[in-house]
């Protein structure tokens, strides 16, 4: 079967007859019996079926990996092998995961549920989480040497678009899609000859303007519908997308957005990003006020990106030796090939020849 | 992979006639289906060629010719950008779009070169 025909929307639509459609649904959810109940549920448009399938696959009763595997299979039409590659497990594991998921669905009779709009709203976070997980797996593979796995990001984007279309009045469906499209818009610029290229160094001519335009439009829709955490993150990503160059980035706005986001979504990683934004907007002292206390947070002490960020502040303040120390600490704390490449390059690029590490930088002497 | 779908126009549209209500409805259904599948990025109809122009550059000379142009079935009447896994899937969507116009139509599908030009790093959805 060609890829196109495996896709859920095609399978559900392929047969005009209701009986055939409910047979397909039953097959997919591996259920038996209670034909009458199923029949009642399959009455309706394709989009209702799709939505029902999404809520089945992403049921909170199922483990996270299982939800991802089922979603990739039933909504994405991926083969077991493709799913195994995506989840970095052997084929047999992926196959068992899917089979177990289907059995759990059958036993808990999940496919017979018909969540009310309120219940859908409650279950929405687990649906969005699955899509975001799939996107992030592709966006920054945390193991191995590959910088991105673009097939997964493409799948996630497709799912997110599906969700926004099926739930047009749900703010966070638009918010998530906006976030993913804006992040994906930078894919063409993220690879350099020697490794990953950081945001501030990317060639913005390589940013995908169609995706940015869609992302910004989706952000407005999401905000108009009430927003949420994904919408807030999309808002921050949009600040970068709108800046014609790194130098023209509206860091004050990003700092404001992080302040608002942190107020309702506190957390050490958010604090890290908030600290960086305040540094860029108001200088190193403002950044240190937020970042240095994080060193004492047990969750953050061994987080390499915190040390890397502080190294940047040290460098900005002319504290080259301190920056070097922090970069070495950061290197020791991560296995990610991508992050190690970036940190290594920064370390190699540090200005040299400071006899006394406490001496302040002398621009006259240090400029090459 | 991103594809551009170009549907060719016909004498009827070139004369400025809008799509019939039935055609309009079928086009709407197709767009909804493509959107529901998460593949539709952008779709636009083009005004008749009488509203456009051609610019040719030849040996340092520029000439501008206003529409309308002849050979309606060679002219693009509508465009859509879609995100498909491969050419096979794109062709399937092209087929569905073509059958929407039951009178007869030609749809051309072309893959969009990734940012950085062909052979450069792919955009999201590039499975090569």
Automatic annotation (TrEMBL), chain B:
SUPFAM superfamilies: Dimeric alpha+beta barrel. It holds the Pfam family YCII. It comes from the Bacteria. Gene3D superfamilies: Dimeric alpha+beta barrel. Residues 1-111 form the YCII-related domain. InterPro entries: Dimeric_a/b-barrel (IPR011008), YCII (IPR005545). Belongs to the YciI family. PANTHER family: BLL0086 PROTEIN, BLL7171 PROTEIN-RELATED. This is YCII-related domain-containing protein. It comes from Frankia nepalensis.
